[in-house]
């Protein structure tokens, strides 16, 4: 166990990298996928089961937790790790993005954002200083800078103004974070799809200095082609010897494309949320368990998968419990999707380490093009 936060690269293959982030709460193997535990739970999963899929780190949402049950209450109860029974690393977002997407009646000033809770309409304020305080009360291992992320499309002036505000907030976040050995503060690059604004943002962040750097402002509706277009240059604008985190991504092919462009960490609600709506990810793409073709099918979702849904249950059973709205349906499909995502990351880490990531990507795309197994 280390007392410090550190990152090391073990191998690169093209622009793809594999390595490890060490924290006092454990190692995060990279590239890493972080399941989202919005309200101090990865929905439908026990934390030990999330761990069993291979997850090294979870993401918690500052916005949700500050409103309910509140950061102060979680602090009194021993911090988020103890509260939710997850003793490994936790990354928390800053709350900024979700204020923009969920809260009502927002008012944005140089100081911060005031808004009304989407739960009970109560009034709250988030500033860089308050966001740092909340993330400290939660006990987060990796803290994100408070930033503003405009929805795309937005005009260049709006994106530039927002990015520069976020850079001033990044400096305030750094100052408010203080000296906390073993904990990390990540800066967030903004600048929309613009090369020069991304470069200006990266330069501002480097000057402040962070333990890691996120590519922010993507996965907000711009589409995969535009996102990859930005990652083609944005990751190289960030320091090579620090972890790079792409926020809120994504579908399996988004993740593979991001890793190919030098990303080390990602998070997304997709595998868990999809599990609750009957959408299943496999090597052969996506399937909908609700579809009648699965009704009499005794085969597993994916015979190569080691999760309980695939080892112990048929497509017919999973179809039945989904249609019957049984709770076990969400549990099993979420477990499978999280297992698929973690297996995907493990496969990429091994391929990068062995210098065969290009071949691995070809196999990944070929298996998806085959599509789901033929109906019985
Ligand atoms: Zn499975």
From TrEMBL:
Residue span(s) of domain tRNA-guanine(15) transglycosylase-like: 15-369
Protein EC: 2.4.2.29
UniProt region (RNA binding), positions on chain: 248-254
Enzyme class, broadest EC rank: transferase
Gene Ontology cellular-component annotations: cytosol
Signal sequence interval, chain numbering: none
Note describing how the cofactor binds: Binds 1 zinc ion per subunit.
Pfam family, one: TGT
InterPro entries: ArchSynthase1/Queuine_TRR, TGT, TGT-like_sf, tRNA_ribo_trans-like
Binding positions (Zn(2+)): 305, 307, 310, 336
Active site: 93 (proton acceptor), 267 (nucleophile)
Binding site for substrate: 93-97, 147, 190, 217
Annotated GO MF terms: metal ion binding; tRNA-guanosine(34) queuine transglycosylase activity
Keywords: Glycosyltransferase, Metal-binding, Queuosine biosynthesis, Transferase, tRNA processing, Zinc
The protein's required cofactors: Zn(2+)
Catalytic activity: 7-aminomethyl-7-carbaguanine + guanosine(34) in tRNA = 7-aminomethyl-7-carbaguanosine(34) in tRNA + guanine
Keyword match Acetylation: no
BP terms from Gene Ontology: tRNA queuosine(34) biosynthetic process
Record-stated family: Belongs to the queuine tRNA-ribosyltransferase family.
Assembly information from the UniProt record: Homodimer. Within each dimer, one monomer is responsible for RNA recognition and catalysis, while the other monomer binds to the replacement base PreQ1.
HAMAP family: Q_tRNA_Tgt (MF_00168)
Protein name (record): Queuine tRNA-ribosyltransferase
Organism encoding this protein: Cribrihabitans marinus
């Amino acid at each position: 166990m280390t007392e410090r936060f550190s990152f090391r690269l073990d191998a690169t293959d093209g622009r793809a990298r594999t390595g490890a982030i060490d924290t006092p709460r454990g190692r995060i193997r990279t590239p890493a996928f972080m399941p989202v535990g919005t309200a101090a739970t990865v929905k439908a999963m026990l934390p030990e089961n999330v761990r069993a899929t291979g997850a090294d780190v979870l993401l918690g949402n500052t916005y949700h937790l500050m409103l309910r049950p509140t950061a102060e209450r979680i602090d009194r109860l021993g911090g988020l790790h103890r509260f939710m029974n997850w003793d490994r690393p936790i990354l928390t977002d800053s709350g900024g993005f979700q204020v923009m997407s969920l809260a009502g009646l927002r008012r944005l000033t140089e100081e911060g954002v005031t808004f009304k809770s989407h739960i009970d309409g109560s009034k709250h304020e988030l500033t860089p200083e308050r966001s740092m305080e909340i993330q400290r009360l939660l006990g987060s291992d990796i803290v994100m800078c408070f930033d503003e992320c405009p929805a795309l499309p937005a005009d260049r002036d709006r994106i530039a103004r927002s990015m520069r505000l976020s850079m001033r907030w990044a400096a305030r976040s750094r100052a408010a974070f203080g000296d906390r050995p073993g904990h990390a503060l990540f800066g967030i690059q903004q600048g929309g799809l613009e090369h020069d604004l991304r470069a200006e943002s990266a330069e501002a962040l480097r000057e402040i200095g962070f333990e890691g750097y996120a590519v922010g402002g993507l996965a907000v509706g711009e589409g995969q082609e535009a996102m990859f277009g930005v990652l083609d240059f944005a990751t190289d604008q960030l320091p090579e010897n620090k972890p790079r985190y792409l926020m809120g991504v994504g579908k399996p092919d988004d993740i593979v494309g991001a890793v190919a462009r030098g990303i080390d960490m990602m998070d997304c609600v997709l595998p868990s949320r999809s599990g609750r709506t009957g959408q299943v990810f496999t090597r052969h793409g996506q399937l909908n368990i609700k579809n009648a073709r699965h009704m009499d099918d005794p085969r597993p979702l994916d015979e190569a998968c080691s999760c309980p849904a695939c080892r112990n249950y048929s497509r017919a059973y999973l179809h039945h419990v989904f249609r019957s709205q049984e709770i076990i349906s969400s549990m099993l499909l979420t477990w499978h999707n999280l297992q698929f995502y973690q297996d995907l990351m493990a496969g990429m880490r091994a391929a990068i380490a062995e210098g065969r990531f290009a071949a691995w990507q070809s196999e990944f795309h070929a298996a998806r093009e085959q599509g789901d197994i033929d109906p019985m």
